[in-house]
Amino acid sequence: MPAMEITIRDFEEKDLLHLYFIDQICYPPGISYDMEAMFSFLFDPANFGMVAEEEGKIAGFVLAGLKPRGCGHIITLDIHPNFRCRGIGKTLLTKAEERLNSLGAKKVVLEVDVRNMPAISLYRKVGYKVVKRLNRYYLSRYDAYLMEKSLKK
Question: pTM of the prediction?
Fold first, then answer.
């Protein structure tokens, strides 16, 4: 069966509940965002959300924003388990980086659980480097890597 076409579009208010549920599936309690946090990230004017869809179904999304001094931040990248290993995460990440670059970001940072090897592998493949280990970052128990990538103008 041929792969369906994935389309990338900007977040719309009607997506909020779907994105929340995908985040709950992708991350364990305490690491996944609660509804209030999702709402505040998505409706903060410094941030944006991009959604990957296949035949009207949301396959995944990225939340990103511009921090002070020209630094982009990938807040979260979530791909529904039924849609993984198809390049959707890489596509969303690339589109978010392009948007951040157009907004003036010189570099992008993100945090990732040191145990999340698939995500770390993806980030390394697209040019992110570990710059620091953040001790007890998640739930005051699990370490994260702070990863960074320079953007080209």
Answer: 0.92
